[in-house]
Design goal:
- Helix content is about 90%, strand content about 0%.
- The two termini are about 20 Å apart.
- With about 90 residues, it is mainly alpha-helical.
- It has one domain.
- Helix 1 runs antiparallel to helix 3.
- The chain contains 3 helices and no strands.
């Protein structure tokens, strides 16, 4: 195996890892959102026993947390996946 084919093989492995990590991140955000919708009061009651926060602050923390995780998911997994696939497509063309 020469250097070029090992590079292509490495990029293919990397891109398959990145897309799996992106899917896991999307599933995590989806479960978080569903949990927040279905058991928002229970989660709020648990957190008010631990911290002195209002309902508004609790909602903001959840929404900002989901937005942060979504942004990191796109930045660290989806964009590198797209870039590696573009390099592979250019190499095969």
């Amino acid at each position: 195996m020469n250097e070029s084919s090992s590079f292509i093989c490495g990029l293919e492995i990397l891109s398959s890892i990145l897309i799996r990590c992106f899917v896991i991140g999307v599933l995590f955000i989806t479960f978080w959102f569903i949990f927040f919708l279905l058991s928002g009061d229970a989660g709020y009651m648990i957190h008010t026993k631990l911290f002195q926060i209002s309902r508004h602050e609790y909602d903001l923390l959840n929404y900002y947390g989901m937005a942060f995780v979504k942004g990191c998911n796109f930045l660290f997994f989806l964009f590198p996946y797209i870039a590696s696939r573009m390099v592979l497509r250019r190499r095969n063309a």
